[in-house]
Design goal:
Layout (H helix, E strand, L loop, with lengths): L5 E2 L12 E2 L23 E7 L8 E6 L4 E4 L1 E3 L2 E2 L4 E2 L1 E2 L2 E2 L10 E3 L8 E4 L6 E4 L15 E4 L23 E8 L8 E13 L5 H23 L5 H15 L6 E6 L2 E4 L3
Antiparallel strand pairs: 1-2, 3-4, 4-5, 5-8, 6-7, 9-10, 11-12, 12-13, 13-14, 15-16, 16-17, 16-18
Length: 269
Amino acid sequence: MAGLFQVLRGKKGGGFAKAEELKGTNGEPLIIPADDEAKVTEKICTRPFAVDWDGDGHLDIVTGNFAGSFYWFKGEGKGKFQPKPQPILAGKETLKIKGVHSDPFVVDWDKDGDLDILTGSSNGGVTWAENTAGKGKMPELKPLTDLIQAPKEMRYGEALPIKEDELTGPTTATRVWVEDVNEDGKLDLLVGDSVTLTAPAKGLTVEEFKKKQAAWQEKVEELSKVIASQKADQKERQKASEEFSKHYQKRSEFVQEDRTGYVWVYLQK
């Protein structure tokens, strides 16, 4: 698997040309290298962000990926990029979110003249990495800190009654945009998310729902232990895996689900 970057060039009078792959100066598509199969998720890219990252006057590409880290491709001007990306660091450590699906938005968030990174996450919430380098210099980032805390992590398959009017903030799979929404001169946050609205299946009370949910969850954990066990042989793990798949379908017996998402607006004070 590979994450390719594509560009749709604007036409005079509106409209766009056919999408084309962005290539490096070597003529090959821009791809984050991941020779180690264990690191293949490094190359599955999420949002690319075009910005002059190193302050040399040329647009670079800052990108997130499935693994939750960040890279940048150095631009050489006129749409040309060096083929090999560089990892983005916080000090000497790789800048990485908790969870996966890093989602970089590059902006001077704290209004000190240099570029910071804001990001969403599969876990939810919004974090930011403060740049301390100063205007026009190669960024020097601090580790990511919370702007909006991620919600409490739920166990696999756990379901609670959740209605739209009970939501108080973004849930999981957050994506970030920064804009002065109310035109007061301050940067605001727009946060998209993914949420599953849940309710007891038709005919069930909340108490009946909770009882069936608890029994279902207990079986999930029992089968999961077998699947992950080093003591169980392959046949036992395979049997548990097949039973797990069948058991998961029984969720519909006690829960109704509506998968959707929302956009939340946070106005900066």
